[in-house]
């Protein structure tokens, strides 16, 4: 028992200070990778600092974006007197914390054990990639905590009478598989988006990114077969005359946010903003709109700087881990890292059209008197749809950077309202709300709730088969794309 207590304390310390702190987790991976590569001590130190600071810069940009948009989302809720559930990973985590004991008599602390075992399963699956065909290790610790919390609730909903150990085993296998399979789905499309940067996505919309990227590619290929001109990507579109200012990402983001955010702030009105203490008494309303809108562009630029700072270090150092322990693998990291690649405007366009989709579905919920009204949280609103816009633009062209995020926005709100109402999370004020958790996990929940242990088996079989099908589609290039990207490009005629 004494040994178990010591191990438990070590794990708690690691989980709290490293795993749940993405900046230190990334720094730790870089540190370990460079040590395994037998780099000089000052190179190890330099890599650790650049990776950690770079992630802190990315986080500062992300937090800034969230805080900039917060008055708008809070304002819409208060201004129109909506008693609603918020789609946001942190609201979802808080809902589990508040309701898990009342609903199921379980402690939130159990989720940390779930996280540990699921993480181990993810690593083991990648270690045996020869058989599993899985290539990505999920390293985004704060996201893992949020997902472990929500998965804990969903599976308890399906099996409320299952004992502690059996349900922990079931949860760990399914969640570990989801992390490994989901991030693996993004390997190929991310390598192409980033021109071989050497990472995958480990976040809340991995299936969504893959589905929309592939759908964009399929629709574009079908259009070309019918004789239509190849669609241009946003980065290839050169606008004429005064429109050329939109070729600059900082300018285009500033103008688009000024229109989008400005319109909403005008609807809210200066009186409300002062009353809610978002504006100071006597402050110019016009300049408040300008400041709020332009700050969005500022924090997006900061986020992109953070990406450029840490991604190179992570990619280079992970080679040491890959060579020694996990052959052919790549790290799965925060989706925000993609915003430093591809067309910067695609992310902005994806966000705007995703927001349009979300707001459209919210209005439909109100019209049809849904038992659960949803308030859009910024994290699903931006990070899901900006990324989907990026990948859709890269695979299919600029029109899909608008269409696919709009569809995603509709699904995010509609799917979240349905699942959160059904499983009882809505009454605790929040649900994770991101694409996979509005689609994939509700599907898993339906299977397990109505088919019991057969449903568990089906979920596991589905997840296990996905990488096998990916491998069959490109046997020669499947592992080459992570081990020798330039060779992969030659193999597929993409030099």
From TrEMBL:
It is a multi-pass membrane protein. The lineage of its organism: Bacteria, Bacillati, Bacillota, Bacilli, Lactobacillales. It comes from Lactobacillus crispatus. The phosphoenolpyruvate-dependent sugar phosphotransferase system (sugar PTS), a major carbohydrate active transport system, catalyzes the phosphorylation of incoming sugar substrates concomitantly with their translocation across the cell membrane. The enzyme II UlaABC PTS system is involved in ascorbate transport. This is Ascorbate-specific PTS system EIIC component. Belongs to the UlaA family. Its main location: membrane. GO terms for cellular component: plasma membrane. The keyword ATP-binding does not apply. Homodimer. It comes from the Bacteria.
């Amino acid at each position: 028992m004494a040994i178990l207590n010591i191990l438990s304390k070590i794990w708690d310390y690691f989980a709290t200070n490293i795993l749940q702190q993405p900046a230190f987790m990334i720094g730790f991976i870089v540190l370990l990778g460079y040590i395994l590569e037998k780099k000089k001590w000052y190179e190890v130190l330099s890599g650790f600092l650049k990776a950690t600071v770079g992630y802190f810069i990315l986080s500062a940009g992300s937090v800034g974006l969230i805080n900039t948009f917060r008055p708008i989302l809070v304002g819409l809720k208060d201004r129109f007197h909506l008693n609603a559930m918020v789609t946001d990973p942190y609201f979802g985590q808080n809902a589990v914390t508040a309701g898990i004991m009342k609903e199921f008599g379980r402690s939130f602390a159990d989720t940390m054990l779930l996280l540990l075992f699921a993480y181990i399963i993810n690593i083991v699956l990648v270690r045996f990639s020869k058989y599993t065909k899985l290539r990505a290790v999920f390293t985004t610790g704060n996201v893992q905590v949020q997902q472990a919390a929500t998965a804990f609730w969903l599976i308890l909903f399906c099996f409320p009478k299952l004992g502690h150990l059996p349900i922990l085993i079931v949860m760990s296998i399914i969640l570990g598989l989801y992390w490994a399979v989901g991030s693996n789905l993004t390997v190929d499309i991310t390598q192409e988006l980033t021109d071989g940067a050497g990472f995958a996505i480990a976040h809340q919309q991995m299936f969504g990114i893959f589905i929309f990227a592939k759908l964009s590619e399929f629709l574009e290929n079908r259009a070309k077969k019918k004789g239509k001109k190849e669609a241009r990507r946003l980065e290839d579109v050169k606008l004429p005359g005064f429109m050329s200012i939109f070729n600059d990402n900082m300018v285009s983001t500033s103008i688009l946010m000024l229109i989008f955010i400005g319109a909403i702030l005008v609807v809210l009105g200066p009186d409300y903003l002062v009353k809610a203490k978002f504006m100071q008494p006597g402050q110019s309303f016009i300049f408040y709109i300008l400041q709020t809108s332009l700050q969005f562009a500022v924090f997006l630029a900061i986020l992109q700087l953070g990406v450029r700072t840490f991604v190179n270090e992570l990619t280079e150092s992970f080679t040491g881990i890959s060579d020694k322990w996990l052959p052919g693998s790549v790290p799965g990291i925060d989706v925000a890292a993609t915003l430093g690649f591809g067309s910067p405007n695609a992310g902005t366009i994806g966000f705007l059209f995703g927001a349009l989709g979300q707001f459209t579905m919210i209005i439909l919920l109100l019209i049809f008197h849904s038992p659960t009204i949803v308030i859009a949280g910024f994290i699903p609103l931006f990070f899901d749809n900006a990324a989907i816009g990026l990948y859709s633009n890269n695979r299919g062209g600029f029109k899909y950077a608008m269409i696919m995020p709009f569809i995603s926005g509709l699904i995010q709100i509609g799917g979240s309202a349905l699942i959160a109402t059904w499983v009882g999370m809505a009454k605790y004020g929040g649900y994770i709300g991101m694409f996979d958790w509005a689609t994939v996990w509700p599907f898993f929940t339906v299977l397990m709730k109505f088919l019991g242990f057969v449903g568990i088996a089906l979920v596991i079989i589905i997840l296990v088969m996905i990488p096998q099908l990916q491998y069959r589609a490109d046997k020669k290039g499947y592992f080459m794309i992570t081990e020798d990207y330039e060779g992969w490009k030659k193999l597929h005629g993409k030099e």
